[in-house]
Amino acid sequence: MSAALPVIRPFHLSDLPALYRICLLTGEVGGDATALYRDPDLLGHVYAGPYPVADPGLTFVVVDELGPVGYIVATADTARFDQWLESHWWPTLRSRYPLREDPRDGTEDHVLVARIHEGSAADESLLDRFPAHMHIDLLPRAQGRGFGRRLVETLAAELRGRGVPGLHLGVDSRNAGAIAFYTRVGFTEAARHDWGRTLALDLT
Ligand SMILES: CC(C)(COP(=O)(O)OP(=O)(O)OC[C@H]1O[C@@H](n2cnc3c(N)ncnc32)[C@H](O)[C@@H]1OP(=O)(O)O)[C@@H](O)C(=O)NCCC(=O)NCCS
Predict the structure, then answer these.
(1) Domains identified in the chain and CATH numbers
(2) Which pLDDT score is estimated for 201?
(3) Out of 13, 24, 173, 180, which residue is the most buried by the measure of CB atoms under 10 Å away?
C-alpha cells in the first residue's frame, strides 16, 4: 500500500523541472512571478537549481499525487557554496545570459542576469554562527498545512547531523506571511537591509 499523500521525501534528480516551476510560481513576494520574466528559468537558475546540484542531500520535496508541490533547498556552508558557484555554476550561465539593459517593459530578467554576473555576496559576519542558508517555496495548494514547518525541521535535523551550528536566509520585507512563518518556526532577525531582512536559526 502506498503512503498517504502529500509526503516529504529527499530530492531526486527528476524533481528538478518541478523545482524550477515552483520557484517561478512563488517568486514574486511569495506569489506567481510568471509575468515578470520572459525567460521562465532565470529564477530557478539563481534560487533553486544550484542547491540540489551542489549537494542533493540538503534538498527535500513535498510530493502529492500530481508531483512535487514544494521544496526546501540549502547549502551547509555558504562560503564554500559561493566558491562552487564561481567554478561550476555561474560561468556557463554568464555565457548563456550576456548582461542586458532594462527593457523598461516591466520585466525583470535583466535584474537576475546582473545577479548571475555579480555572483554571490554573502554577509560574512554571519557565517561563523550561521554558515548554512536555505530557500523554501510551496505552491498555494500545499501552503498552510504544516509542510513548511516540517520541511524546516527536516533540513534542521540533517544539518545538525552534519554538525552545522546555524542557518540563515533572506526575506523580502514585503513578504509579511513568510516573515510570520519564519518567526513561528524559530528564526530571529539577524540584519535589516533596504530590500528586506536576514533571519537566522540557531541549531546548537
Ligand atoms: C512561507 C511558507 C514556506 C510557509 O509554509 P506553510 O506550509 O504555508 O506554513 P506552515 O503551515 O508550516 O505554518 C507554520 C507556522 O507558521 C505560521 N504561518 C505560516 N504562514 C503564515 C502566514 N502567511 N501568516 C502568519 N503565520 C503564518 C502558521 O500559522 C504556523 O504556526 P504554528 O505552527 O505555530 O501554528 C509557504 O506559505 C510558502 O511557500 N509561501 C510562498 C513562497 C514564499 O513566500 N516563500 C518564502 C520566500 S522567502
Answers:
(1) 7-202 (3.40.630.30)
(2) 98
(3) 24
